[in-house]
Amino acid sequence: MSTEQPDTTTSTGLPEGVSTLTPVANRPIGKSAKLAGVGYDIRGPVMDEAARLEEDGHKIIKLNIGNPAPWGLEAPDEIIQDVIRNLPASQGYCDSKGLFSARKAVMQQCQQQGIAGVTIDDVFIGNGVSELVQMAVQGLINDGDEVLIPAPDFPLWSAVVSLAGGTPVYYRCDEASDWQPDLEDMRAKTTSRTRAVVVINPNNPTGAVYEADVLDGIVSLARERDLVIFADEIYDKITYDGAEYIPLATRSDDLLTVSFSGLSKAYRVAGFRTGWMIISGAKRRAANYIEGLNILSNLRLCSNVPTQHAVQTALGGHQSIFDLTTDDGLLNKQRKLAHSLLNQIDGVSCMMPKGALYLFPKIDTRRYNIVDDERFALDLLREAKVLVTHGSGFHWSEPDHFRLVFLPREEILADAIGRIDRFLATYRQ
After folding, report:
1. Counting Cβ atoms within 10 Å, is residue 275 exposed (0-12), middle (13-18) or buried (19+)?
2. Alpha carbon 411 to chain centroid distance?
């Protein structure tokens, strides 16, 4: 009888405890070790449970995803019409970086915003910002490199850094200061291995809009430590109460800055999957990196061609998003209502978001004995039929926050938050 022990090394590709002597037909096929620790809890176990409940006939109020269309916030007709009219001309591949008209429109927007030196060749169109984030990180990060990422974060950034062999290092955003980044914490966590810093402004999940002195402080640190700046600005047009969105690239023209935005949120076409990435600043010094981005862009042939025809119309026409964010705008009213109702719940407090589509309330964990925020989200879902995302899904270190969108109409928000209130009245973990 063989005394050989099961091979538990990752080189076999087999899960721990499975022997290489196990018959092939019985061996489980394991996932890549690169996926260890990679998650996307916005569409994770809690959402899976919501799907199961729906299959059983329950109606769920879904406040977990920033998807405008299901709540009646649809794209302007002219955007849809331009895509339809250009379908016959969209049957073949386009340039790997994107259609000329789309890139030209993004370039012209950069000129209007004051981002210097951006040419058409500095603009990449992608299948949503998500694809472009993956390209940008994969093209830069080597095994063992570190990337500064805000906590709370949008979890895509942590995932792609890990998949590229890098290490996410979380700098804290300060709730007491309207969720502005803590510059001292950021500085303390910068090491010789740090290659880049991620800035999400306006912020998801907190709704913060970063102040000029904070942005300048980030740029100063990046200049001192020679960091690449990744500026995630998909909510650039969604601000409230006079909050000013400042394109980070306008403050960092001596540093390599990679900026991201797209159609999904401001133009309510998340399903179009059309975003863009802009390279600005120290482009000459980054020639080798940009060559890598071109290689990665070529490998995917091109992004979805039909929806690229929406970019020129969207950026050049009436910006209907501003009608929704004014004092009397629909999104603004819903934001104020949700904020007010949440703060009326005993043991819940919430900063007023100044941008984006989300609230990030804090729960008194001692009052409700909450030690596991994912369990809280699951319990809320099962009892109240309201779907939210737990704060640890955004790499927040304490089990004391959750995120919800304020996209639904006021009567639905009132119903959902009322259910949360009634649920918490008797809830203890």
Report:
1. buried
2. 27
Per-residue pLDDT of 382-424, as tens digits, reads 999 999 999 999 999 999 999 999 999 999 999 999 999 999 9
| Tens digit of each residue's pLDDT (9 = 90 or more) over 120-150 | 999 999 999 999 999 999 999 999 999 999 9
Q: Give the rounded distance of the alpha carbon of 422 from its chain centre.
A: 30
184-224 pLDDT, tens digit per residue, is: 999 999 999 999 999 999 999 999 999 999 999 999 999 99
Q: End-to-end CA distance of the chain: give it in Å, rounded.
A: 51
Tell me the C-alpha distance between 39 and 156, whole Å. 8
155-163 and 128-138 helices cross at what angle (nearest 10)? 40
- CA torsion through residues 197, 200, 206, 207, sign: positive
CB 199 within 8 A of CB 249: no
Nearest to 275 by CA among 137, 129, 134: 129
CA proximity to 423, closest of 398, 397, 388? 388
Residue type (1 letter), 263: L
By residue count, the chain amounts to 429
Percentage with pLDDT > 90 across the chain:
89
Which ranges constitute the DSSP H helices of 236-304? Answer: 287-299
**Whole-prediction pTM:** 0.91
- Give the CA dihedral 312, 316, 321, 325, nearest 10 degrees: 150
The overall average pLDDT reported for the chain is 94
Rounded CA-CA distance 66/407 in Å is 7
